[in-house]
Amino acid sequence: MSVLPYLVAVWIFLVGAHGLATSRNLIHAVGCLAVCQSGTYVLLLAVGYREGATAPVYADLEPGSRPVVDPVVQALALTDVVVGATVTALLLALVMQIAKRHGTVDPDELSELRG
């Protein structure tokens, strides 16, 4: 088992988190959040990977004849994609409303939102 996919997932997540922390634009921040989410896709697929395993289609396999990958992890990755797309669409809609009402997408210029 290789540690490389886990390192790639952490690296993708950290790149997105760095962009999110240093962003001066709300649209850029939403994009960086989507990059963080893609790190979780890589992590889920790395967890479900098995060396030499085949797809989990059991019609042509005899039980125990060869290893198969975990279908639950693949289903979680697909669910993660759908949730990520939904959250990104919602956040972009909120950014559009902020831009309409306040005329800017710079978080520092949104003085009405300060507490």
TrEMBL record:
Q: Where is the signal peptide?
A: none
Q: Where is this protein primarily located?
A: membrane
In terms of InterPro entries, this protein maps to: CPA3_antiporter_subunitC, NUOK/Mnh_C1-like
Q: Which GO terms describe its cellular component?
A: plasma membrane
Annotated Pfam families? Oxidored_q2
Quick check: keyword Magnesium in the entry? no
This chain belongs to the protein called: Dehydrogenase
Species source reads Streptomyces phyllanthi
